[in-house]
Amino acid sequence: MQTLAVLVHAHPTLHIALQARMYNLTLVHLSGSSPSPSNPVLVQSAADLHAVVHLTGGKVRAAVVWRKSLDATLGSLHESLRELTQTSASSSGVFGMWIVQGAR
Question: Dihedrals φ, ψ of 31, to 5°?
Answer without folding.
Answer: -75, -25
